[in-house]
């Protein structure tokens, strides 16, 4: 019985790590006065003043960044 419970717990841990892969967040960086797109769940502290997400694709994160009023406008040569 213990082996079965342990196997179930390990499966849950591995599944959580796998599902978190490939996600994107938009963060406001106070040090650079920019909004960055990151691939790890940010911690809002220090220079990071907000986070938004997660998003399933980079395109979704870019679209979200373009709609956030606190994010400065990007020039045509910027990502």
Which runs of at least 5 residues are low in confidence (pLDDT < 50)?
none
Number of distinct beta strands: 3
Assign the structural class, choosing from mainly alpha, mainly beta, alpha/beta, alpha+beta, or little secondary structure.
alpha+beta
Shape field: elongated
Fraction in beta strands = 15-25%
Order of helices and strands: HEEEH
The level of helicity is 25-40%
Taking strands numbered 1, 2, ... along the chain, how are they ordered across the largest sheet?
2-1-3
The Cα radius of gyration reads: 17 Å
Mean pLDDT: 79
Amino- and carboxy-terminal Cα gap:
53 Å
How many distinct helices? 2
Sheet having the most strands: 3 strands, antiparallel
What do these coordinates show?
The chain has a domain at 23-71. Helices cover 37% and strands 24% of the residues. It is built from two helices and three strands; from the N terminus they run H-E-E-E-H. The chain has a three-stranded antiparallel beta sheet. A hairpin with a 4-residue loop joins strand 1 (24-29) and strand 2 (34-38). The longest helix is centred in the first third of the chain and has 19 residues, at 2-20.
Topology:
Layout: H1 2-20, E1 24-29, E2 34-38, E3 48-55, H2 58-67
Antiparallel strand pairs: 1-2, 1-3
Would you kindly provide a brief summary of this structure?
The chain is of the alpha+beta class. The chain has helices at 2-20, 58-67; strands spanning 24-29, 34-38, 48-55.
Keywords:
three-stranded antiparallel β-sheet; single chain; elongated; alpha+beta; 2 helices; about 35% helix; about 80 residues
